[in-house]
């Protein structure tokens, strides 16, 4: 099976300025290496981590979703990241997976960050999403989801976990610890994309966007500065490791009930 080449886009975000952020990311996407299969943007990449959902949320037919799908088609690359989306009178922190053929799948953030009051402004998702690209099985997650290993657990269900985030610098140790932990326990690759700079609430973000392999080894780390990292992931290496060390076969099986979700 062919490698999967991913590019992490770590940058600051213009607070509550959707047009400016779209323009900025368009420039970054047009500068991607030609071999990129998937470009990963941060959480709430058009606004920053806002709790003013009623003012800044857009419908799925809105300009930011159209921009993302049009850019994916134009550039010939899969684009993903999260937006605040309005749907049916509710608001969601929604991870979008836009492919060059014009399709857009989504996952709604399950774990809402109560310390910022996110659970008062957004509705939690109830279903995980696993997308496929070139034979790869990819599971998207959003920020605070990283702290919850049961929700992130897959018994040979996916090959790559993707976390997009606005993860504050004050808690960077949890981010840098849990990303490789999720890789080891799931025997899969993990990519985490965080922002840098400060938001409109004067919260600072340290970046630390990174990619880890199935052993938890770091394949790329962007540190605290804006930048890009492109990494080719080997499915053959992942398969050989799972065959050589099949710990996933001894994993505890479980089923989430509606109340647990």
Question: Brief description of this entry?
Answer:
The chain has 261 residues and is α/β, with parallel strands linked by helices. Strands 5-4-3-2-1-14 form a six-stranded mixed β-sheet. Strands 6-7-8-9-12-13 form a six-stranded mixed β-sheet, with helices on one face.
Describe the structure.
The protein has 261 residues and is α/β, with parallel strands linked by helices. It is built from 6 helices and 14 strands. It has helices at residues 18-30, 53-56, 63-75, 118-121, 172-186, 235-244, and strands at 4-10, 38-40, 78-87, 90-98, 104-108, 131-133, 136-142, 160-164, 189-193, 196-198, 204-206, 210-212, 218-221, 227-233. The strands form 3 sheets. It has a 6-stranded mixed β-sheet with strand order 5-4-3-2-1-14. The chain has a 6-stranded mixed β-sheet with strand order 6-7-8-9-12-13, covered by helices on one side. A hairpin with a 5-residue loop joins strand 12 and strand 13. Helix 1 (18-30) runs parallel beside helix 3 (63-75). It is globular and about 50 Å long.
Which characteristics define this entry?
6-stranded mixed sheet, 23% helix, alpha/beta, 261 residues
How many strands, what sense, and barrel or not for the largest sheet? 6 strands, mixed
Number of strands: 14
What integer is the average pLDDT?
A: 96
Distance between the termini: 34 Å
Which stretches of 5+ consecutive residues score pLDDT under 50? Answer: none
